[in-house]
Specification:
The chain is α/β, with parallel strands linked by helices. The protein has a domain of 181 residues: 3-Layer(aba) Sandwich (Undecaprenyl pyrophosphate synthetase), CATH 3.40.1180.10. It contains ten helices and six strands. A six-stranded parallel β-sheet has the order 3-4-2-1-5-6, sandwiched between helices. Strand 3, helix 6 and strand 4 form a beta-alpha-beta unit. Helix 3 crosses helix 4 and helix 5 runs parallel beside helix 6. The chain starts with 13 loop residues before the first helix and ends with a helix. Bound molecules: 3-methylbut-3-enyl trihydrogen diphosphate (IPE) (2 copies) and magnesium ion (MG). One 3-methylbut-3-enyl trihydrogen diphosphate (IPE) binds next to helix 3.
Length: 268
């Protein structure tokens, strides 16, 4: 007869243990990307699927922003860039643009205390001069109020497009040449990077795009030269911590070669 005593308990049940491990526990925190960038896409389709107006999707996407920010900070990621509004998004219907700007003002204002509580600094990239005054004001306040936070930098890309950023950087460099402060022969990749909005941040090692679209939509073209791309069918309002962990785990399974051979990378 089988009693409790003669059931042999496996001592080294590694397979069982790994199956039981949560996604978060499977992440190797010694090999995290320093900077993750996200193209938050699919709010409109998500709302339409629920028979709701597109703005409802944008409102629901705020929860995913919160979840992703928290997940990244808890893991120990140092920079998180979220593409919230592109230069091209100004071409959407006025009602949607106005609602997005209102949502931005409300959310930034409401979340500043949480950012401070979690020791997260807010930064922005993009043509902020083109934003409505109320939006710029609340952004400036939040950036100032969180300036001393050290755990993670949350970078919002607002009225951002990479071609705009590259053209602006080129103008600044050309001006230095005209003023005789810079010689064309001294222009290099490092000098160029220093003129971009992202000059203070490392390039993202990982770029995530939700909603099944597999394109870049004018986002960080210069900075993603060697980023790993992760595309998921999940629509942005359904993206949560578990989805973020899946992306990090996928990234950790990649071999980043930077032009070298696999054998060379293994020797390092
Ligand atoms: C992303 O969701 C949010 C912004 C671009 C502001 P979309 O609004 O692009 O949603 P879809 O792509 O139409 O579903
Ligand atoms: C990219 O999404 C911009 C943001 C996520 C803010 P879009 O939905 O605007 O991109 P396209 O138009 O489908 O390429
Ligand atoms: Mg979209």
């Amino acid at each position: 007869m089988l009693t409790n005593q003669n059931i042999v308990q496996p001592i080294n049940d590694t397979v069982g243990t790994s199956a039981r491990m949560s996604l978060k526990e499977k992440i190797d925190i010694t090999r995290l990307p320093q900077h993750v960038a996200v193209i938050m896409d699919g709010n409109g389709r998500w709302a339409e699927q629920q028979g709701q107006v597109r703005v409802f999707g944008h409102q629901s996407g705020v929860t995913s922003v919160r979840e992703t920010t928290e997940a990244a900070a808890e893991l120990g990621i140092k920079y998180l860039t979220l593409y919230a509004f592109s230069t091209e998004n100004w071409n959407r219907p006025k009602d949607e643009v106005d609602a997005l700007m209102e949502l931005l003002v409300y959310t930034i204002h409401a979340e500043t205390a949480t950012l401070n509580k979690n020791n997260i600094r807010l930064a922005v990239i993009g043509d902020t001069d083109s934003l409505p005054d109320a939006c710029r004001k609340v952004l400036d306040e939040a950036i100032l109020n969180t300036a001393n936070n050290k755990r993670m930098t949350l970078i919002l890309a607002l009225s951002y497009s990479s071609r705009w950023e590259i053209v602006e950087a080129t103008k600044k460099i050309a001006q230095q040449v005209v003023e005789g402060k810079l010689q064309p022969k001294n222009i290099n990749a490092e000098l160029f990077s220093a003129q971009l909005n992202t000059s203070l941040f490392p390039d993202p090692e990982l770029l995530i795009r939700t909603s099944g679209e597999q394109r870049i939509s004018n986002f960080l073209l210069w900075q993603i030269a060697y980023s790993e791309f992760y595309f998921t069918e999940t629509l942005w309002p359904d993206f949560d911590k578990e989805e973020f962990y899946k992306a990090i785990l996928d990234y950790q399974g990649r071999e980043r070669r930077f032009g070298k051979t696999s054998a060379q990378m293994l020797q390092q």
